[in-house]
Amino acid sequence: MKVLNLYSGIGGNRKLWQNVEVTAIEQNAKIAKIYSDFFPNDKMIVGDAHEYLLQHFAEYDFIWSSPPCPTHSKARYWGFGGGKMEAAYPDMKLYQEIIFLQHFAKGFWVVENVQPYYKPLIPGKEVGRHLYWSNFNIPAYNDEPIFPKDSITGLQQLHGFDLSNYKFNGKTKILRNCVFPGIGLHVLNCAIGAIPPMQEGLFAESESKKYV
Asked: What residue ranges do the domains of the chain occupy?
């Protein structure tokens, strides 16, 4: 199964996948190097995931995309309200990719992002802490452990990545950006079992009704 892992980070979503041929796209070369250290058999491309999707979407059986989330997050909105962050336009790559994949992709696909501070422009399915848009059904996932927000040690244990040999700032952010590996496997397993792809009702309404 050929898998495209866009905005891969260090590979939280990918950690438990087996028997797949993965191409990962990550723009930050330092983060891409860490991913490659953990997953040496994957093909890593350092570049623009948004553009790569447009040019290569038809080459893969399964596409996972996790576009940048900060401009959609409640934390950003609350930070502005508290005078700690500037206002910013939401990055519309998120919705561009959902609409694009909905109409052009022939294989299975999923787009993952945070629960936003606004009502989502396209309804998504709440799975764990985040929202997912896909062309297959993703049931609820109830086994995600308590998320340790500030502890590097706790985040490493949660995701199963030891970054102690890497010397750089920002480890907490990198780990916080990881999808919990159990959910990554859950979503892939749902795709493998979803044959053929759903032709209608692609997006389930979010179970969360609490918007700012």
From this structure: 2-193
This prediction's pTM? 0.87
Beta bridge partners of 133: 111
Dihedral-angle region of residue 149 (phi above 0 means left; psi in -120 to 50 means alpha; beta otherwise): alpha
Element (DSSP H or E) covering residue 56? helix 49-56
Query: Which percentage of the chain shows pLDDT scores above 70?
Result: 89
pLDDT band, residue 191 (cuts 50/70/90): very high
86 CA to centre of own chain: 25
Question: What's the fold here for domain 2-193?
Answer: Rossmann fold (3.40.50)
Report the distance separating Cα 119 and Cα 190, nearest Å. Answer: 26
Q: Which helix (H) or strand (E) holds 30?
A: helix 29-38
**Beta strand 130-134 with 108-114: parallel, antiparallel or unpaired?**
antiparallel
**Can you state the angle between helices 93-104 and 49-56, rounded to 10 degrees?**
10
